[in-house]
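Hi R.,

Here's the input for the pyridoxal-5'-phosphate complex you asked about:
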Amino acid sequence: MRPRLRCVNCGAEYDPSPKLFTCPKCGHLLEVVFTPDELPPFTEFRRRSRMMGIWRFKELLPLKTERPVTMGEGSTPLIRLEKLEKIIGVRRLYVKFEGANPTGSFKDRGMSLAITLAREVGSKAVVAASTGNTAASAAAYAARAGLKTFLLLPRGKVALGKLAQSIMHGAIIVEIEGNFDLALDTAKELAKRDEFYPLNSFNPWRLEGQKTLGFELFEDIGVPDHIFVPVGNAGNISAIWKGFKELKRWGYSDSLPKMNGIQAEGASPIASAFKAGLRAPLFTDSPETVATAIRIGKPVNWLKAWKAVTESGGTFESVTDSEILRAQRLLAREEGIAAEPAGAASVAGLIKLASQGYFNGDETVVAVVTGHGLKDPDSARFHPTMRLRAISMDDAIEKVMEVLEGRSVEEKAVG
Ligand SMILES: Cc1ncc(COP(=O)(O)O)c(C=O)c1O
Ligand SMILES: N[C@@H](CCOP(=O)(O)O)C(=O)O
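And here is the predicted structure with pyridoxal-5'-phosphate in place:
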């Protein structure tokens, strides 16, 4: 059935148009709604090649195409955390490691769909505001599709790895004197012009790609009890929830997970309002956090995320920068998983909630680790390290043996 666009606030429905993003009646964001023509048995999706990327689930996506722009995104590892289960006190704990995507973050799932659409509607150029990952992903997928990419980035606030990716893929970078929210307003203005196709998450077609994360979880472990997602512009948690709701609506599953959104304390417009019992976010002009990916004061998808959490019976929580860095360290040093700070926020949130008795002791919990640690190499300086300096081979061997035999414990945080 032909997809429609539906307002998340007033429910008004519209015929699809690739550049209709907000409801002409009430100004809220739209979502894509459709009924698949065909519903293959779920086992069929697993049989398909991983190199099809999100298009493995093509019957459950609203865009029909013979030529998707794909790099095999998705099909990311679901990793059981046996050591952290004991440390945190959760029965079954998994990380869905989105750092394993082609450009190192979950954005690739959405970008594959959005760039395919941009090409199909004849756009020559794409535009995105970004704290870094959207930029890297947009630049890579647009390069593959032969589209010119314009990126609006908050100056000095994008992690090195992400900036390097955007440069490597040949994007045109506009550094904005101001934060992400200003960059996003600029991207929205540019998107009004015919030349540009926007790739941020106010574009509901992009989120259709991101819902496949939910499909993969269902494929691997069924419906988990809880899913924890770091929240910035609030698109991803909304997309994952939409994926699970569709699985239920289309008869694949009979239950739903609780969605839990985690924000950094210094950039927590949604979590702080939710915890204060309000019904709308407390936007801020000066978000600040070590987790630069989620340094966002006015999340554009706040209503979609709010509904995901309240309808599912989950919660929003905020975590401090030191809680985020501790989670980053635990993931890396206990489980071998390198997360960028924002990616570790989900784990920081579940650690905090577990310590407050949030879980009943027999649940399956999934934390989405949204971006790879290599994205933000600078964040390594927050962790203690042992560096031995040696002036000769004998000296090096002696220093190594001292440590191995416990004669020297030289562990310092660098930076
Ligand atoms: C690594 C990382 N984690 C989490 C988020 C938050 O995702 P969303 O903006 O969809 O809430 C972002 C971007 O905002 C990100 O880049
Ligand atoms: N973390 C994001 C912020 C932009 O969010 P988007 O989902 O609206 O593109 C980024 O990587 O830029």
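One thing worth noting: Residues 105, 131, 133, 201, 230-236, 293-294, 340, 342-343, 370-371 surround pyridoxal-5'-phosphate (ligand 1) (CB under 6 Å).

Cheers,
M.
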